[in-house]
Design a protein that fits this description.
This is Ig-like domain-containing protein. The protein is mainly β and 303 residues long. It folds into three domains: 39 residues, no CATH class; 110 residues, Immunoglobulins (Immunoglobulin-like), CATH 2.60.40.10; 115 residues, Immunoglobulin-like, CATH 2.60.40.10. 11% of the residues lie in helices and 44% in strands. It contains two helices and 25 strands. The chain has a six-stranded mixed β-sheet, with no helix packed on it. Strands 16-25-24-19-20-21 form a six-stranded mixed β-sheet, with no helix packed on it. A hairpin with a 3-residue loop joins strand 1 and strand 2. The chain is rod-shaped. It starts with a strand and ends with a helix.
């Protein structure tokens, strides 16, 4: 008796933490009782590739580590790992045939694997001298003869550059002097504080407000910002009526939620101000006139 029987079986088996294996069996009984064919297909999940838990924020010019790893090491002879920019598909770095390769000029000599860690399943990328163009999403793809997997990492480049004017500025006693501090930041500025080399607070800006009461008594009423310039990143300090004890280094420290940077200005040559020089000259001239008049009177009395 001829019969046609088609049975479709789907079996799902959970294997530890490695994932779910799907086993499909197809039993096909031919018209001939002597011909039974059983076909099985095994669908295996991809590699479990682990990456960073969130965006990677890095300062311009610094280095950044882009994590990429698997829990179970993969034989090197069948391993291929490639890092690419997701937006442009630019190849950043490749590990193939047991060697590290990278030909793109923009990443040459800046992108590296930790070669000794690859055999342990660590394929993290180390990128140095970060530039604004490096911001974006990167994909780490891991391939073997039988399976593959990938993960992504997002680089967010932040910027905080603090610069001053001349390394040293001069002022006469009693004069006013400006100590320069310019801030270029991609993040919101949370705090700017001017301090002396003795860690004495000269003036502080915090959470959008100038805090004159934060000044040490030595500088209270003598130190001020330029309010109209703050939104431009200009945190230069005007120090009024310079005194002898003001001589030394002044530091402008800038803080965001992620970064900190500073610049230093030296206040030196606290000599006599122009006014003091003029007063001194007048005193000398008056003394000479008095001496001349006295000599004239003496000579006249003798005559």
């Amino acid at each position: 008796m001829r019969s046609l029987l088609l049975v479709f079986i789907s079996l799902y088996v959970v294997v530890g933490s490695e994932g779910i294996y799907s086993l499909h069996g197809l039993l096909n009984t031919e018209t001939s009782s002597r011909s039974n064919l059983i076909l099985f297909t095994l669908s295996v999940p991809g590699l479990q590739v682990e990456g960073p838990s969130g965006p990677l924020q890095v300062q311009l010019g610094d280095s950044v580590l882009l994590p990429c790893s698997v829990r179970t090491p993969v034989p090197l002879e069948e391993l291929e790992v490639e890092w690419r920019r997701s937006d442009s598909e630019t190849l950043v770095l490749l590990f193939q045939d047991g060697e590290e390769r990278g030909e793109e000029p923009e990443f040459r000599n800046r992108a590296h694997f930790f070669t000794e860690e690859i055999s342990r399943g660590n394929f993290s990328l180390f990128l140095t001298d970060v530039t604004p163009a490096d911001a974006g999403t990167y994909r780490c793809s891991v391939h073997t003869e039988k399976e593959s997997g990938d993960t992504t990492a997002l680089i967010s480049v932040v910027r905080l550059v603090v610069s001053g004017g001349a390394r040293a500025v001069s002022a006469g006693l009693g004069e006013d002097v400006i100590l320069s501090c310019s801030v270029d930041s991609s993040e919101q500025i949370e705090e700017v504080v001017w301090k002396t080399d003795q860690d004495i607070i000269v003036l502080q800006y915090k959470d959008g407000e100038v805090l004159p009461d934060s000044s040490h008594e030595r500088y209270r009423g003598r130190a001020e910002f330029f309010p109209a310039e703050i939104h431009k990143g200009n945190f230069s300090l005007r120090l009024k009526e310079v005194r002898t004890e003001d001589k030394g280094d002044f530091m402008c420290e800038v803080h965001t939620s992620l970064l900190s940077a500073s610049t230093t200005v030296l206040l030196e040559d606290l000599g006599l101000s122009l006014l003091h020089v003029l007063i001194l000259l007048l005193c000398i001239i008056a003394a000479l006139l008095a001496l001349s008049l006295s000599s004239f009177m003496c000579l006249k009395m003798r005559g």
